[in-house]
Design a protein that fits this description.
- This protein is α+β, with helices and mostly antiparallel strands and about 400 residues long.
- Helix content is about 35%, strand content about 20%.
- The radius of gyration is 28 Å and the shape is elongated.
- The N and C termini lie far apart (about 80 Å).
- The N terminus is likely disordered.
Length: about 400
């Protein structure tokens, strides 16, 4: 839904959709940006999404939602945060609050009315954004990493209403993990400056100086939203000395765990579908990085053996230990001649079974059994030794 009589437009998002997990090979994957866009700028066409700059209002919802940061905005919110919060490093720790307020441009008139109406409320640091839909959990966490004592989200009714419940839910969950709960306030349904002032004052009365003020903020690299999230959670864990432990099953957030059964042939279908760098294949094994997975589900849909299962779960501890781990290793079939491992045992069994399933029906039972036996025997040799073995068998039969 677009704002009525709204003349404010902002620069459209910059989209580079290479590596997008929206879909592949007929399978539908990630829908995060589609669901976030309220202005029909992002639509699906087959496997892929398409982006229309003309329809884009520059709200930033897509950039906030995409874990891979395939959408970027002209305005750098992180830079503005660094400038606003960093400029108060000289403030004595016990005398002043550092409260950052994300607010939309449509709400500026309420703040501007403070002076003429002589309305007083505790000092907050306003950071104006085109739309609150563009604020992600990483922006909120970054504010605390920069030493903010509290964060307020407040804007016009439409902006506040569109502010993602997933974003606020994840941010609150993470803050609770590090004993920083209660430092985030979402102020809704504000009609005038007086009511806004009362809400700000009520929030500030509960806030004490943050224990993170004494630490230097982590240096963020120019990477994806997901990698920034991992960096910030790791930074909070290091600064507070708290190891997060919460596990949320059936999470609506884009996190998932992967399990693989013994029927896996390590064919590589799952790894070829993964654009987030969560899955890898090497020498008969599948590796996994939990923090990289965005729960698009392409790997699960593509597995021909139905051996891979994706379970949506948010595991806070795994996010700070984003190391690569082997989640499946197949027994290797060795060549009957040179003894070189050349195929996974599961793949060998799968192909052997296919000989029976696809047996020729134009020959007799005895010939069928002999054909299956010969095919299976040849399969026990690697691709280098198999031709020689086949020629030898032909010479014996002749």
């Amino acid at each position: 839904m677009k704002r009525k009589n709204d003349k404010i437009r902002y620069a459209p998002a910059i989209a580079d959709l290479k590596g997008c997990a929206s879909g592949k090979s007929g399978f539908k994957g990630c829908t995060l940006c589609e669901n976030a866009c309220m202005h029909d700028a992002i639509t699906r066409s087959g496997d892929n999404i398409t982006f229309d700059e003309i329809s884009c209002t520059g709200c930033g919802a897509c950039a906030s939602a995409c874990p891979l940061s395939l959408f970027r905005m002209e305005e750098n919110i992180y830079y503005k945060m660094d400038s606003i919060l960093g400029s108060l490093d000289h403030v004595p720790e016990k005398t002043a609050h550092k409260i950052l307020m994300f607010t939309c441009e449509h709400n500026r008139h309420l703040l501007d009315a403070k002076g003429p109406k002589k309305i007083k409320y505790p000092a907050v640091l306003p950071l104006f954004v085109p739309d609150l839909a563009g604020i992600s959990e990483t922006h909120i966490l970054r504010a605390f990493d920069l030493g903010a004592d509290g964060v307020i989200i407040s804007g016009c009714d439409e902006c506040t209403g569109q502010f993602s419940k997933v974003t606020s839910g994840l941010a609150r969950q993470i803050l609770d993990e590090f004993n920083l709960g209660g430092r985030l306030s979402i102020i809704k349904n504000i009609k005038n400056t007086k009511s806004l002032a009362r809400s700000i004052e009520s929030f500030c009365e509960q806030i004490t100086p943050s224990p993170l003020r004494m630490f230097e903020p982590v240096v963020l690299k120019n990477v994806s939203n997901r990698q920034i999230l991992i960096e910030l959670i790791s930074s909070l864990a290091a600064k507070t000395g708290i190891v997060p432990h919460t596990v949320i099953e059936n999470a609506t957030m884009p996190f998932a765990d992967i399990s693989i059964s013994s029927s896996c042939t390590v064919c590589g279908a799952c790894t070829s579908m993964c654009t987030a760098g969560a899955l890898g294949r090497d020498e008969g094994s599948i590796s996994y990085m939990y923090g990289n997975c965005i729960a698009c589900g392409l790997c699960e849909q593509a597995c021909p053996e139905k051996a891979l299962t994706m379970k949506r779960v948010l595991d806070m501890k795994k996010l700070i230990d984003n190391s690569q781990s082997t989640i499946f290793r197949s027994e290797q079939q060795e060549c009957a001649s040179c003894r070189k491992p050349y195929m996974t045992r599961a793949a060998f069994e799968r192909i052997s079974c296919s000989f029976i399933e696809n047996v020729r029906d134009d020959i007799g039972p005895k010939e069928q059994i002999e054909l299956i036996r010969n095919q299976t025997e040849l399969l026990t040799y690697c691709e280098n030794c198999r031709p020689a073995r086949a020629i030898m068998r032909m010479e014996v039969l002749s």
